[in-house]
Specification:
Strand content: 15-25%
Protein name: Purple acid phosphatase
Structural class: alpha+beta
Order of helices and strands: EEEEEEEEEEHEHEHEEHE
Strand order of the largest sheet: 3-2-8-9
Family: Belongs to the metallophosphoesterase superfamily. Purple acid phosphatase family.
Pfam families: Metallophos (PF00149), Pur_ac_phosph_N (PF16656)
CATH topology of the largest domain: Purple Acid Phosphatase, chain A, domain 2
Radius of gyration: 19 Å
Number of helices: 4
CATH class of the largest domain: Alpha Beta
Catalytic activity: a phosphate monoester + H2O = an alcohol + phosphate
EC number: 3.1.3.2
């Protein structure tokens, strides 16, 4: 499990200490540190540390940087039942806090967030405020995200885009054999989850297509953000299992109906 935190103190060590009892840290993991510049904005020191191995369905207590407040997280179970919360387009509006409260009430094990996180849209300080906004939840359960159009932030000097997203929200793409943080897969409780990137190439000659062909599972959940409105995906070209909390829908055919994440 990866712990991410940001500090303005360059001398603070990139370390996470953790254990199963409050204030008693029996293990520690050293992390890596990065930062980025975007026009006149300079980020804080962004730290990523992988902790573990961890026991399943267990509460751990941890702190970052060798000091500061103590947090706690609960690891997912190793087998069914498991509860997923699936919410995208969080943003930072008057409704976001209400949405987070509803998520918290779900007693979920893993949050899947299919795109459009902070709605920073080039205003980098909004990435900082979004982090503070979701910290009470994101520090307690795994949040697995993929990018949307609001994460791209492509301008003349940063044509490839996703600079802030890739620096701040590092997902286990290397562990899953992906070449990009924009798409990856992971396993939890016997479920193989594939998080696809609809804002990076996915045609037959792309790295993403080759990777997906290699790791694809017929029982995987596929999570996309929508395509650009003028380049919608035809339903006979890409099928993805719905992540909605509902049973299978029998519509003319005996197999379960499949849904695209968005029109």
């Amino acid at each position: 499990m990866r712990i991410t935190w940001i500090t303005g103190d360059a001398s603070s060590p990139s370390i996470v200490e953790y254990g199963t009892s409050p204030g008693m840290y029996t293990s520690s993991s050293l992390g890596e540190r990065t930062s980025y510049k975007y026009l006149l904005y300079s980020s804080g020191k962004i730290n990523h540390a992988v902790i573990g191995p961890l026991r399943s369905n267990t509460v751990y207590f941890y702190r970052c940087g060798g000091q500061g407040p103590e947090f706690q997280l609960k690891t997912p179970p190793s087998q069914f039942p498991i509860a997923f919360a699936v919410v995208g387009d969080l943003g930072q509006t008057g409704w976001t806090q209400s949405t987070l409260e509803h998520i918290n009430q779900c007693k979920y094990d893993v949050h899947l967030l299919p795109g459009d996180l902070s709605y920073a849209d080039y205003q980098q300080h909004l990435w900082d405020s979004f982090g503070a906004l979701v910290q009470p939840l994101a520090s307690t359960r795994p949040w697995m995200v993929t990018e949307g159009n609001h994460e791209k932030e492509s301008i003349l000097f940063f044509k490839s885009g996703f600079q802030a997203y890739n620096a701040r929200w590092k997902m286990p793409y290397e562990e899953s054999g992906s070449t990009s943080n924009l798409y990856y897969s992971f396993e939890v409780a016997g479920v193989h989850i594939i998080m696809l990137g609809s804002y990076t190439d996915y045609d037959e000659n792309s790295d993403q297509y080759a990777w997906l062909k290699f790791v694809n599972s017929t029982h995987a959940f596929w999570s996309w953000h929508r395509n650009d409105d003028d380049e919608s995906v035809e339903s006979d070209e890409v099928w993805i299992n719905s992540l909605a909390s509902m049973g299978c829908v029998d519509e003319k055919k005996p197999e379960c109906r499949k849904f695209l994440m968005a029109p």
